[in-house]
Specification:
Number of strands of chain B: 21
CATH architecture of the largest domain in chain B: 3-Layer(aba) Sandwich
Largest sheet of chain B: 6 strands, mixed
Radius of gyration of chain C: 24 Å
Largest interface: B-C, 31 and 22 residues
Largest sheet of chain C: none
Chains: A alpha/beta, B alpha+beta, C mainly alpha
Strand order of the largest sheet of chain B: 7-8-9-3-10-11
Number of domains of chain C: 1
Strand content of chain C: under 5%
CATH superfamily of chain C: MetI-like
Number of helices of chain C: 13
CATH topology of chain C: MetI-like fold
Radius of gyration of chain B: 24 Å
Oligomer: heterotrimer
CATH architecture of chain C: Orthogonal Bundle
CATH class of chain C: Mainly Alpha
Distance between the termini of chain C: 58 Å
Shape of chain B: globular
CATH superfamily of the largest domain in chain B: P-loop containing nucleotide triphosphate hydrolases
Amino acid sequence: MTRGRRRSSPRRSKSASGAALGAVWLTLAATLGLAACGGGDDNGSGGDRPRLVVSAASSMTEALTACAPKFERATVRLSFAGSDELAAQIRQGLKPDVFAAANTILPRDLNDEGLLSTPVEFATNELVLAVPRDSDIRSLDDLSRDGVKIAIGSGSVPIGSYTRDVLSRLPKAESEAILGNVRSNEPDVKGIVGKLTQGAADAGFVYVTDVNATDGKLTAIALPNDLQPTATYAAGVVKGANQPAEAHAFVDGLLHGACAEELDKAGFGAAP
Amino acid sequence: MAPLRVEARTRLGALGLDVSIEVQAGECLALAGPSGAGKTSVLRVAAGLLRPDRGLVQGDGETWLDTERGVNVPPERRRCGYVFQEYALFPHLSAWQNVAYPLRGLSRKERRERALELLERFGLRGRADARPRTLSGGERQRVGVARALARRPGVLLLDEPLSALDARTRAGAVRELTAVLREVEVPALLVTHDFGEAAGLGSRVGVIDAGKIVQEGTPSELAASPRSAFVADFTGAIVLTGRARRGPDGLTRVDLDGGGHVVSTDSGEGPVAVSVYPWEIAIEPACDAPHGSTQNRIPAEVLSVTPLGNRVRLGLAGPQPLAAEITQASANALGLHAGARVTASWKAAATRVVRVEGT
Amino acid sequence: MIDRSGLRSSAGKVGGRSRAAPWFPALLGLALAAALTFLTLPVVAIFVDSSPRDLIDSLGEPGALDALWLSLRTTTTSLAIILVVGTPAAYLLATRSFRGKALAVTLVELPLVLPPAVAGIALLAAVGPSGILGGVIEAAGIELSLQTAGVVVALTFVASPFYVRQAMAAFAAVDRTLLDASRTLGASEARGFLRVMVPSAMPGLTAGAALALGRALGEFGATLMFAGSFQGITQTVPLAIYDRFATDFDSALALSAVLVAVSGAILLSVKLVQGSEVLGAPQG
């Protein structure tokens, strides 16, 4: 009797669990397939178009993601990180087609090292003090209070160096107090934004475009004019890139084309 | 020392267990039966590792289980010594540490002393620091028994204590285990699938089949008067099936299935089984005329000749399979070999009529 | 007649059963060589790419030492929590069946298949300042985000499945009669757990702990998102490596080398412990 029972149930449960497993895999495959086709920067069956790889600073995430599909000459693949990380990758031999940084120093350095074409300045950005919408912090003075938690960029990423630049122009006591309240040195600007929107940090130094992108979750407090650093964005074509012609066209587009419009919409300033 | 009482009525999967046994102090009851009969379950109920739907267990002068009154003492508080089938020695502890495991409330020195004392009794003092994996099967069995005895239990439970041993070690182990059982003077319950083992170790044997005890008695009682074909077969008898009717001279004539007939001094009617033991069967050359007082004569062909010390066991093909045990000398004298035609003969008085199950 | 030619051809070959497929053993060897190269080259390159003198100098600077010390503290704390909570939990899952057990097992293993970034998001959503329990945690006066405690939480979350799974397998593999024997010998279930089950399962538990430790040492994404990156407080070695690789590659190399060496040491000691278990402790 036991034997009979044992014989029938594995078969039944095997086919039942087999069907369930099949359903799981099918759903997974369908989801991945849809994600691959639907999302990203492919519009329709643009399989014959050349591919362009663009390494860009995190602060341009929203703007470039919006304008890249509109680039007709190539299918654009975007890679966002801190500008210093992207530069280091290029130094290590990675070859994206375009490098767009949040400062001019990194592209110029790469140009000096023969890794990048002559950089083109295409936009500017404003450094702001960002706080959560309901914060009681109103100005830089509030930052040196006890218990205020501040997030800034790490020393090597443009947003971090701009921030340190700003702080160095403050009276020593104030800058030390503010630095003493720093609780995180994020590798890129989106990390700072994340800490602010999650409520982990009380204040942070980011670009005005980043605050705009949070759709009202953060408030931007403008810095006094004399403290405002010049955040100029520059881009270049990587030497040895696969699609140099398209790459140059893309860089042009940052100044004149669809991307320039998107950058403007996001709150970037015009090129100097 | 108090007796052990185990009553259990419960369902275990497809098996309905229904037993009631009592073992006196100093006595060993051997439960013998085929695998799946429920023997180990009886031990587990006694030890508290299995809770029956309804049951009563009394041992060491206490009531350990009484389902009607809601009493259920957990295993760790029952003073049982349980020897598991594969001994269940703790692999990460040495022999003496295994034996000392149940000893609580003593200093390390005292525990080691007591453990060594026990190991000495089993001739294993020299292996005290060995890990179980380096011990032989026989040594592991003795450590298992020593460990079960360490805290002087009120009841001894043994699960197939000899089955994991090879034939040579088994003989010595039987002697030793018998001596131990005599010494400890507590009731012992032993289960085995081998009737010979049960007969050797138990003062009484209970044959258990499909969860019920079908016959209980001394080993010779069971062999001499098996109450059913199952018991007869289990105790090592040849079992032949046929139809019985009253024959001449007050004897019972049984027409065997497959041909031939035997007579028996037992009474019976209708479909029956007859049992006879191999050593009660004599072998004659086929062509010989009947001589002597044996009434049952079955022609057969020798299938196999297996030496057993100074005897041989013959596998025979007749209308139904038979087996006979005769001396090696006789086998030689008759020139027996596979294929030889013989006559198997035995007395009507040695032919027992037993029940066939279901009739 | 025995076909002797067949016997002769198979006698001297490694696994060769027929003349028709001599390429199979070669293919196996090739696969192994490729795997070994792929796995060891990056590790070797770490040590080869920079001079030992530079490596040691880089290690000396305070940021690197802080990162090493922080990684050490947080991973050991996290491992301690995982062992204390995970061992009984794994035991329960391995030895009892109860309704919803399959679900419980899946939940316990879930962090295993979560990408670290997702783990970070999950932690923020659960115990972050704006998370479900954020208010409760704050009211209790506990600070997780941007604090070392937050690092420990992140490490524990991502590393515990590695231990619990191994522990479950180890406990399930222990002969259940050992526990029965322990009970019949007078030991309660708790004593049996400590004195029989855990020691019997020890090789598996050790392996699980090593895996969890390795995972915790290398954790990056969840830590960054949940706890932030600040020298001495939350910047563990992986975060420090990431911070440095753009500007001070040598320093990144040095820290990586240390991490590789430590992970290697952990693996090696686990193998040694397991090996000694298999061979048997010395007698007497």
